[in-house]
């Protein structure tokens, strides 16, 4: 095929038909499919080398450190058989053969647009590598290399999908597979794409120039045997780095590639053009790709590496759900199934969530939201609960901004941090009270208890009322004073009132002393026995009897008012509790 010719190839990959033109027109980008809402969408494909000259490197380049001479085998009988290579910066462009020349078949500098450009290795070097380090994950479909001189006698192509940490071989190429790669299986038409094999069709010594090496990741003849959306196949086509290892030169009649300059300067690797065909890797969630960042210069036909994500996905490669859409596990889009990420199930009280596999399984694989930063006094995996100290208003839906109202529990009387139970419509919320506290708000003691105290684990202490002296089992809840029967006194109603004794369960509690007016000092008596305080020689509980051996004199000393000697206005001090004069006498005198 001549330099001006064009060979149209149809590469069928993952069930998609991607036209690719080898030659100058192969630089164009095939536009992606924008129908993302109907299912999996496709990003544009193109040559991943375009715009990435700074990410392309070769282990060997002629003239990189000084001018080199090289010869063409086809020109051995001609006068001008050898040429110069000077690839240093600033060297004339027509003799510079740096690795970036393989991106375009012709020079792009003004004045050189119709001249062929190529990369060329140092003379006589057999083990040479070309490596492309991409800035993101890409979907790699095929590789085409067009050589200016002989194709390699043996080579292999590797790729990495973890930015160069690990490498896997895509394909081996050799004129003699058994000799070059003895442990590698040979190509068979029915061999699957997942195991590397060696093929010989691209390693012959002819043609001398414009020979091609083509690597298809997925053979079109076997595409129907594999699910294009399977994880295994998708991983096979995922790439962050591509490395081409040339391991053996064609030396024609020179059996040994020795150190003689005239021998070595005839043998080297040289590539006119290389096309690393692919697209940005978006897992079916984008139809367009953007620059990874503002530092990357935009070049016509460049395939950028940052996906313009749809289906509520995000990230450089749409590899995760948006923080606001983590209700379902992330999945790649497949066929007619967009597998869009779903909005967090947070009852309108939180914007973001994270996906929780355990919650997802518990829900019957319907919802996995674990909401972050619930607002409006809500909490819970789905912001479906009220925070401690708040309750759900039964008149409002859980999605209402005011669905949670403050419990207003009395802290001194509550447990569980001020929790309360949501009431039914028309009722008040019930706080969780300490064991001796009651009320919707836990703000007062149970009957029979008093002194609501935050340091008391039960909340209140029991009333200490004397059961015989009280009218009820309760006491004043602030001071603890009991409610006493008529003739009982004391905070605990455990003492008879003055002039009373004998506390019992009777209705009045205590009995009157009823001390004798003339035989006792006053009307007070012992609260236990009821004994009055008698004058001398007087006995009996109420002081109403003379002691044995004593009697009461006749009433001949009665003082009558009319016998008074007081004239005019006068005050007479009269004893309120008159005494009784007793006399001792003989029995015969009585």
TrEMBL record:
Recorded name of the encoding gene: LAMB2_1
UniProt key word Transmembrane: no
Record-level GO cellular component terms: basement membrane; cell junction
Organism: Lygus hesperus (Western plant bug)
Entry protein name: Laminin subunit beta-2
Residues in Laminin N-terminal domain copies: 37-279
Main location: secreted
UniProt signal peptide: 1-23
Sorted UniProt keywords: Basement membrane, Cell adhesion, Disulfide bond, Extracellular matrix, Glycoprotein, Laminin EGF-like domain, Repeat, Secreted, Signal
């Amino acid at each position: 095929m001549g330099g001006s010719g064009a060979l149209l190839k149809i590469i069928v990959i993952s069930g998609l038909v991607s036209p690719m033109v080898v030659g100058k027109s192969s630089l164009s980008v095939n536009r992606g499919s924008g129908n993302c809402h109907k299912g999996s969408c496709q990003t544009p494909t193109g040559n991943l080398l375009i715009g990435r000259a700074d990410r392309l490197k070769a282990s060997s380049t002629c003239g990189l450190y000084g001018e080199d001479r090289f010869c063409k085998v086809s020109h051995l009988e001609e006068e001008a058989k050898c040429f110069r290579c000077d690839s240093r910066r600033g060297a004339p462009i027509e003799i510079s053969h740096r690795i970036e020349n393989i991106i375009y078949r012709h020079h792009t500098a003004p004045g050189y647009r119709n001249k062929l450009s190529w990369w060329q290795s140092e003379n006589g070097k057999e083990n040479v590598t070309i490596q492309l380090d991409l800035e993101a994950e890409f979907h790699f479909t095929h590789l085409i290399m067009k050589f200016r001189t002989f194709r390699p006698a043996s080579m292999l192509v590797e790729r990495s999908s973890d930015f160069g940490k690990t490498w896997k071989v895509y394909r081996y190429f050799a004129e003699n597979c058994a000799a070059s790669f003895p442990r590698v299986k040979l190509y068979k038409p029915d061999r699957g794409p997942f195991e590397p094999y060696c093929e010989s069709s691209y390693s012959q010594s002819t043609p001398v120039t414009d020979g091609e090496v083509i690597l298809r990741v997925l053979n079109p003849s076997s595409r129907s045997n594999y699910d294009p959306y399977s994880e295994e196949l998708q991983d096979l086509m995922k790439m962050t780095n591509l490395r081409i290892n040339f391991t053996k030169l064609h030396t024609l009649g020179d059996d040994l590639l020795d150190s003689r300059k005239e021998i070595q300067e005839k043998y080297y690797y040289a590539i006119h053009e290389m096309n690393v065909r692919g697209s940005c890797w978006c897992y079916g969630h984008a139809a367009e790709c953007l620059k990874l960042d503002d530092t990357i210069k935009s070049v016509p036909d460049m395939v950028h590496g940052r996906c313009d994500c749809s289906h509520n996905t995000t990230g450089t490669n749409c590899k995760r759900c948006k923080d606001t859409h983590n209700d379902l596990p992330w999945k790649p889009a497949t066929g007619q199934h967009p597998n869009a990420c779903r909005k967090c199930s947070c009852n309108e009280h939180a914007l973001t969530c994270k996906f929780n596999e355990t919650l997802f399984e518990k829900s019957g694989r319907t919802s996995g939201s674990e909401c972050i930063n619930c607002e409006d006094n809500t909490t819970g995996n789905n912001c479906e609960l009220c925070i401690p100290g708040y309750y759900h208003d039964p008149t409002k839906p859980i999605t209402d901004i005011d669905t949670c109202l403050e419990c207003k529990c009395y802290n001194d009387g509550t447990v569980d941090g001020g929790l309360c139970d949501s009431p039914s419509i028309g009722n008040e919320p019930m706080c969780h009270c300490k064991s001796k506290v009651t009320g919707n708000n836990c703000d007062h003691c149970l009957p029979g208890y008093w002194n609501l105290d935050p340091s008391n684990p039960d909340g209140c202490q029991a009333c200490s009322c004397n059961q015989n002296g009280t009218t009820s089992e309760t006491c004043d809840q602030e001071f603890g004073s009991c409610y006493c029967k008529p003739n009982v006194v004391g905070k605990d109603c455990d003492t008879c009132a003055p002039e009373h004794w004998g506390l019992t369960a009777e209705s009045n509690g205590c009995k009157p002393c009823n001390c004798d007016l003339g035989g006792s000092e006053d009307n007070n008596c012992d609260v236990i026995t009821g004994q009055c305080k008698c004058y001398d020689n007087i006995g009996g509980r109420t002081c109403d009897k003379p002691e044995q051996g004593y009697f009461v004199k006749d009433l001949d000393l009665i003082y009558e008012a009319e016998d008074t000697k007081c004239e005019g206005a006068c005050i007479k001090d009269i004893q309120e509790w008159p005494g009784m004069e007793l006399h001792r006498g003989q029995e015969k005198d009585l």
